Amino acid sequence: MGSVTYFNSASLDGYIAGPDGRWDWATPDAEVHAFVNDLLAAARTHLYGRKVYDVMKVWDDLPLDDLSPAEREFALQWRDADKIVYSKTLAAVTTRRTELRADFDPVAVRQMADAAAGPIAIGGGQLASVAARAGVLDEVHVVIAPAHIGGGVRFLDAGLRLDLELIGERRFGNGFVYLGYRVLRGNGETPFGWSATTARS
């Protein structure tokens, strides 16, 4: 049984992009990038909203010879994964192994996760917040960058309450810190999630 898992980088004050839309302050070095590759390797399906898809689709056709080893590994992982994009305004998708859907259906996502061998990865805080409110978000993973940016796009929506159980942590040489959590349900039970063995290494 798989899990529905949200991963992103964030500033110390909880933003994934600044007021100007930039996230260069969160650019990973080789150590962090390799760790993220390992963390996401088991996710064979990625879920996106339109804005995050527009950012991520560059990985579909970047020349591999121009990339660092960690970037090349991520590009190959991304190309080999199935993608579902949720948008009512996007007319078509242009990347391989990608499906366009108008609405996020939490029942269908739960069924997909239950049938999967590994995690279903959500990209983007807005979609992750929708999944959390629908009760289908199982895990939250964040790499915190050593930056306080004062505003912008939130890691998760304001007003969203989640009780969490720590399952992994790691400190990197460049000052970045990883934290991984299971989402606790109302009765204190945790859903099935992926192994935190890599996260704790």
Automatic annotation (TrEMBL):
Coiled coil: none annotated. Gene3D superfamilies: Dihydrofolate Reductase, subunit A (3.40.430.10). It comes from Microbacterium psychrotolerans. Transmembrane segments: none annotated. InterPro entries: DHFR-like_dom_sf, RibDG_C, Riboflavin_Biosynth_HTPR. This is Dihydrofolate reductase family protein. Pfam families: RibD_C (PF01872). It comes from the Bacteria.
